[in-house]
Amino acid sequence: MKYFNKTDLENTYISAVRIIISVPSIIKTNQIFNANIALLKANGYPDFEFEGTLKVFSSKGIQGLPKSISFKKEDEGHIKITNLSINKEGFYHIKIQLSELNHFPSGRSNGIWCVNDFPYNLYFGDIHVHSTKGHCGTPFMPKSPDFGYWYAKYIAGHDFCSITDHASNASNQDWLDIIDSTKKWHEPNEFISILGYECDYDGEDGGHYNIYFPNDIGEMKNFKLEVGGTLEKIFKFTKANKALAISHHSARTQRGRDYKKSYFGGQEIEPCSEVISQWGSSECILSNRPIRITPHKDKAHYYNYAIQNGYKLGALGSSDSHSTTPGGFAPMIYPNRAGKTVFEYSGAITGIFSKSLTREDLFSAVKNRRCFATANDQILLWIYTTDGFMGEEITTEHDLLNIMVLSASNPILEVHVIKNGLPYQIYNKDNSATNFSESDFLFKKKIDNGILQNDTNYYIKVIQSDGDLAISSPLWLLK
Length: 479
Hints:
Elements: H1 6-14, E1 18-22, E2 26-27, E3 33-40, E4 52-58, E5 62-63, E6 68-71, E7 78-86, E8 90-92, E9 94-97, E10 106-108, E11 112-114, E12 121-129, H2 145-155, E13 160-163, H3 172-185, E14 192-193, E15 196-198, E16 209-212, H4 231-240, E17 244-247, E18 272-277, E19 280-281, H5 303-308, E20 314-317, E21 332-333, E22 341-343, E23 348-354, H6 359-367, E24 371-375, E25 380-384, E26 393-395, E27 398-406, E28 412-419, E29 422-427, E30 436-437, E31 442-451, E32 456-464, E33 469-472, E34 475-478
Parallel strand pairs: 2-11, 12-13, 13-14, 18-20, 26-34
Antiparallel strand pairs: 1-3, 3-7, 4-6, 4-9, 5-7, 8-11, 9-10, 12-23, 15-16, 16-17, 18-19, 21-22, 23-24, 24-33, 25-27, 27-31, 28-29, 28-32, 30-31, 32-33, 32-34
Helix pairs in contact: 2-3
């Protein structure tokens, strides 16, 4: 073709363009860790054919990092750099690209916070992924449950994942296949698979819920209205199975959740809500990432309204990917939408502060709302006071909040503080330059309002310069 260079076309749309570099977000000095490296095409799937050498750049102080890495076809688009360490507390990152020039592929890791006195590890994953067993997408998009777990572990670099297919479409054999795949991929302290499904409730008082089991045993149950499903039955079933019920895309007109008509299931049953996905953000009605196709115009369908009105819900993020790519790296394209990419957002994941990478500890952390939602960039959010951490209800005399944010692939644009479900303060380089550092990938702020006058809660929303965002669970201060 005389109008373009074939090599340029291949380099941009056929070969790898993005390098996913996943490293632990929180480590101690001299702790040995690994970096998971994966090559993605523009369509979100791995470049299995890539061969070549890539240059490695990093913050000073990461020990054991090579100056370059090489890929062979047999690597199938992913490799691991092992035996890395850092001997000084601080903030670090890794960058890998084809050359020092602006060429594809290129990538930057999530930030690394090296700190010795932090009480938790931080783990990332996607707990809302659809596969072929749900029979809900166009034929070419969904892949097998095994593909989803493989992609989560080796391509996205996640620590945990859940395949959550639609109960109203799946057969008994489909459910057994999902259970078998979940068992196969589960490896405590290495990678956690979580048994779950989408129960398909369609009442406006609840909308769609996912149900997650704490082990490999569970019944897939359809809760659609047409078969007698109710929100009360969902909560009762969840409690009986010691499971979790998590609602999602509350801000959709169809199968959303009206918090005026609904009620809170309680911290043991529904500790959190999914507030970011490829559908968009259900956090507030005016968002930089509005819900796609059918956004609701009633503010009672949004997370901040729920927080204002007594729902003590933490925040989770997931992709809701129907292409079986955890994190939502692959676009979802539907023939009935004229072949267009309907969901241009990249999806989302959940960050969980946990003692260890086990189902028991992850479930405990989510029940305690020690978690947050982030677009599939692994942004780090942490809010705390002298008396407690994100997700907790703390009896205190002080109206105090400490914030720390470490962004991932792009600098921080804004940090929004939400107080009692309402906008309280927005920080950016123009009004709070001294709180930004590390070339604007780091933000720290202490808000001290003196004596606590009334029960109060805070959560934060972070927007990166590329538009990706993250939302923390609240911290409740009780007088």
